[in-house]
Specification:
The protein is of the alpha+beta class and 291 residues long. The chain has seven helices and 15 strands. It has a single domain, classed as Clavaminate synthase-like (Double-stranded beta-helix, 4-Layer Sandwich). The strands form four sheets. It has a seven-stranded mixed β-sheet, covered by helices on one side. Strands 12-6-14 form a three-stranded antiparallel β-sheet. A three-stranded antiparallel β-sheet has the order 8-7-11. Strand 9 and strand 10 form a beta hairpin. The chain binds succinic acid. The site of succinic acid has 10 residues, from strand 5, strand 14 and strand 15. Keywords: Dioxygenase, Oxidoreductase.
Amino acid sequence: MDSNFRHIQVEPEAQGFGARITGISIDKPLAAAVLREVKEAWARHSVVYFPDQPLSHTQLEAFTLQFGEFGVDPYIIPMEAHPHILELRREADEKAVNFGAQWHSDWSFQEQPPAGTILHSKITPPVGGDTLFADGYRAYDDLSETMKGLMNHLVAIHSASMPYGKNGLFAKETEARSMKIVVSEDADKTWPHPLVRVHPVTGRKSLYVSPVYTQGIQGLTHGESTSLLSYLYQHMVQDTYVYRHRWAPNMLTLWDNRCTLHNAEGGYDGHLRLMHRTTISGERPVGVAAV
Ligand code: SIN
């Protein structure tokens, strides 16, 4: 148990990344002191989850707004009457690859990507369907000083093109999908972000690239960029940096997109998985040179 908290119980996961929060109900607005502790636990552990918390759509929205404004969620049609909630639904007989099935940080192609994402589970499969989270802080901290020195000055180019572009993966999809995804030319736009991101709350440095949304590194040749990124991807998602999150119904998980990657595992064909997702707006990523 993390003994720094008075109003909530915080149990860190074994490798010190990710934590379970109990001792409170999140279906009503949190008292200021409780909210402060939840935010503190989130900053320390990057991924926090609250088991056994049934929530209506309105309660999920209200919980989200305690952490900031809603983020902007492009390319996916939200729930009717709830424009800030995405329903992540995969039917038992669905053959399309499950949504989010590759390492990424949510919407990193935006000028101001969401600081956090909240996922609330309604129906979870008896097997599979875990979400993996990778700790971008430790992946950065463990690089050699020479490598850090090089990374600190690099700028990566992010784009939604690979999944959501007119020639992207969803455009080419042949299997039926329950989620309504909109492919668009707009997805081919790019946005530069520092490859090493300084977290605005903790001040810690994290690697900020992903195989889904990072297209390359400014100023490097294609070969240099591809080699460096593939090294970083395999480095960032080594077991030692990964927390495997096992869901149960009515669990709310809040993760920090500024210092983590996540990857939704499949393995539950034949079973329905149903989740509701909101995002919390964020700031423009700041690099090492700017602080
Ligand atoms: C996502 O937001 O990338 C999906 C996560 C999940 O469904 O586990």
